[in-house]
Amino acid sequence: MRVLSTTIIAFRALRRNKLRSMLTALGMIIGVGAVIAMVSMGNGAKSQVQAQIAGLGQNMITVFPGSLTSGGVRGGWGSNSSLTVEDAASIKREVSGAIGVSPEIRDRQQVMANGLNWNTQVLGESADFPSIRAWRIVEGEFFSEQDTRNTAKVCVIGKTVADQLFSGMDPVGQTLRARNIPLRVVGVMAAKGFNTNGVDQDDFIIVPYTTSMKRISRRDRVNSIIIQAQSQDSMQSVQNDITDLLQQRRQGRDPDYTVRNQLEIAAAATATSETMTALLAGIAFVSLIVGGIGIMNIMLVSVTERTREIGIRLAVGAHGKDVLLQFLTEAVVLSVLGGALGIILGIGTSQGLAYWKKWPVEVSMTSVVVAFFFSAAVGIFFGFYPARKAAQLDPIDALRYE
Which of 47, 67, 167, 246 has the most CB atoms lying inside 10 A of its own CB? Predict the structure, then answer.
């Protein structure tokens, strides 16, 4: 009952100075709102990156070529095309946890069909590609292992190529030409759209890697090898087995390749967004501290203004702890009201950015709860000193105060 009556008195005291109370709570409102909005934007960016990494494939491990040194000139990673089809075949044959393997050849060609032409990426892949990349076929089908063995003149195309060369038509069964090689379209991949770097993920044609190597790109090395592990838990062991196998095939020579799994790529890609989220949240929490200092300042002023009131309460029998509880309650009420309004502001700002600016946002209930309780803790921390000062006033001196 005492707590209830003290809270009612605190509300009355705050209502007597509505404007001052609102301005005092404004620091908490802005602080809590900023924390929620900043963390939501950071989480949204992180989730977007993770979704794109997940879109690269399912339990995927990638082998990249190493660096090339010639005449004292050192190239970067990928400058030495040292990977071969035999490397990929050995991985598929000898690494038990690898359930899908595709050697990759990347090239760009001007392709033509129906009197139209389009410059696009030509990918050489194996029949395991859709499974490794978790990429659906929406029309037709993907080429088979037999097509790969036979160096078949077939291809699967992305939505962009389908729109550019076969607009208003069913692409399946049509023929397009790459490097004057006729390729029959057997399927169309599901659309993925643009990635965060602005690259159209649907602008490609896929052919069997044997067709790419012997007919189109005419090369004997591959750009990379992608592998699908049996499960996420087995990715690290599969990666280690692949590394050991490739090193054995090179008979002790220095590694001319690097092996990365999907989890490592995701961790590297999200590291920047996590750092930015922490930085923005830290700045927002500083504004909460500033708001707490504002509450302390106003409560000290309030103690000075209400010295006679405090003296009267103490004179008629109130205890020091009652005065302490009253002023501490006022500080907590200001903080909690500011925190509640800040939650509304933060969520509203996040949703507004998502709607108007199309920014990826993800409101975290953890950030909402932490910001709210932090605001209450700030109120208690910064309100304790003014409340303790009021409780320690001498009743006689307080009654004499002008």
Answer: 246
Distance CA 152, CA 171 (A): 18
| Per-residue pLDDT reduced to its tens digit, 163-205 | 999 988 999 999 999 999 999 999 999 998 887 667 899 999 9
Three-state secondary structure call for residue 251: coil
Which stretches of 253-338 are assigned E, i.e. beta strand? 257-261
Distance in angstroms (rounded) separating the CA atoms of residues 305 and 299: 10
Phi and psi dihedrals of 324, rounded to 5? Answer: -60, -45
Residue 131 CB contacts under 8 Å (≥ 6 apart), including other chains = 58, 99, 100, 228
What are the tens digits of pLDDT across the range 52-100?
666 666 688 999 887 544 444 444 454 556 789 999 999 999 998 899 9
Q: What is the pTM of this model?
A: 0.63
Examine the pLDDT at 239 and tell me if it is beyond 50: yes
Most confident of 2-6, 7-11, 247-251: 247-251
Domain ranges of the chain: 2-52+271-400, 83-255
* CA–CA gap between residue 91 and residue 104 (Å, rounded): 14
Cβ–Cβ < 8 Å for 67, 85: no
CB 35 within 8 A of CB 283: no
Residue 47 vs residues 105, 196, 359: alpha-carbon distances, Å: 30, 12, 12
How far apart CA 139 and CA 134 sit, in angstroms, is 16
Q: How far is CA 362 from CA 36, 45, 108, 116, 365, in A?
A: 10, 8, 37, 43, 10
Question: CA–CA separation, 91 vs 108, rounded Å?
Answer: 27
